[in-house]
Amino acid sequence: MRNKYYTCLLTSVLFASVLIWSTGTVSAEPHIKAPSLLDAIRMHPSVTFCDEPVPMADQQVKERFEKEMMLSLWDRPQVILWLKRSARYMNVIERVLTEDQLPADLKYVAIAESALRPHVGSRKGAIGFWQLLPETGRKYGLTINDRIDDRRNIYASTRAAATYLKTLHAKFKSWALAVAAYNMGEQGLMAEMMEQGVDNYYDLYLPLETQRFVFRIISAKLILSDPAAFGFHLSPLEAYPPVTSDHVAVNCFRETPIRLIAAAAETKFKTIKDMNPQFRGHYLAVGSHTLLIPKGAGKEFAERYEKLLTEYGKERSDRIYIVSEGDNLSTIAAKFNVPLAAIIIWNRMDISRPIHPGDRLVIYPGGPHTGVVEE
User: Fold this and answer.
1) Are 93 and 224 in contact (CB under 8 A)?
2) pTM for this one?
């Protein structure tokens, strides 16, 4: 009986919340009156996407548009995060679109796809700002393997996505269709167009996600183009600032711990990982890499890096443990009083593969020391 009571109470509270929002009498933000949802969807009787008119006179199209607008506006915390992240990333996206002579509206594709989160992934394997599949990313020049995933890099992924969208537009001659193909795959869209005998996005019966996709982008465009009109008032100081950085080139003649890069940049491991989300794991692979480090840290970075790399080589050679008969990772970890997970990290091991007598492991009792400057 008590559970039934609380269920009824929760339902009443939710209904009251919907009623308050729909009438516009209370804003989700203190002292700011947001328009009601009904007023919000009435604000745009005519809409375009990439300068292509959206046929709002079609009742079904209008209904699809209104649904996405209301769902977007209802999730006010998400919109606030869109606004805050946009200040950090949109300048990069806008610059690439301008250089490639592409419509500015395409920047909102990244909002609809990832909400500007570098690590978000889908069940189908799409990852990053633009939610590119591995095969698509590689086709458009991205490095994607177990060590590097450029789909998480705002610069590289935006250039790949821009080229892909330009290719799709050349094929379908419509930005709405190009974006639909981006969402569901060009072969799938082409098959539906042929089967249905329709070449207009708004008249096609497509997977439900794709039928919503263009309207989600348009909703993001309308809200972010004039956030104050929808009750969002963020000052510039409340937005997440763009990352200011120096570019450094690093040559790795062996697998190199990212903590060495952090130490040479006089910052933390997390800072380097956050600024370079394309690098996976704790080590840089053999080869040449370009990384972002905090602004100003590039001065004398190379000298600090070479010194730390030399010290790392000497320390590593002094820390070799040769596996004996009867050893396993747990007993070795206990012997040196270090976490088993640390041994796996230091040796880039696959935990499912057994160790054998004579194997050489790197062990740092007490942990490695890099001389990181604490902030």
Assistant:
1) no
2) 0.81
Burial of residue 225 (CB within 10 Å: 0-12, 13-18, 19+) is exposed
Question: Three-class SS of residue 129?
Answer: coil
Domains of the chain: 46-237 (1.10.530.10), 245-362 (3.10.350.10)
Q: How many CA atoms lie within 13 A of 267 on its CB side?
A: 21
Q: Nearest Cα to 305, choosing from 371, 217, 353?
A: 371
Q: For residue 49, what are the CA distances in angstroms to 34, 66, 108, 171, 217?
A: 25, 15, 10, 18, 9
Provide the β-strand partners of residue 247: 292
Closest by CA to 232, choosing from 72, 68, 18, is 72
At 306, list the tokens: 């070479």
Nearest to 239 by CA among 34, 32, 88: 88
Which candidate, 323, 183, 165, 302, places its Cα nearest to that of 246? 302
pLDDT in tens, 128-170: 999 999 999 999 999 999 999 999 999 999 999 999 999 999 9
How far, in Å, CA of 270 to CA of 281, rounded?
12
Overall average pLDDT of the 25-53 stretch: 72
Q: Fill in the DSSP letter of residue 123.
A: T
Q: How confident is the model at residue 28 (pLDDT cuts 50, 70, 90)?
A: very low
Distance between terminal CA atoms of the chain?
Answer: 56
pLDDT (0 to 100) of residue 315? 75
Q: Are 157 and 132 in contact (CB under 8 A)?
A: yes
* Neighbour-count burial of 137, counting CB atoms closer than 10 A to its CB (0-12 exposed, 13-18 middle, 19+ buried): buried
DSSP string, 19-67: HHHHHTSS-SSTT--PPPHHHHHHS-SSEEETTEEE-TTSHHHHHHHHH
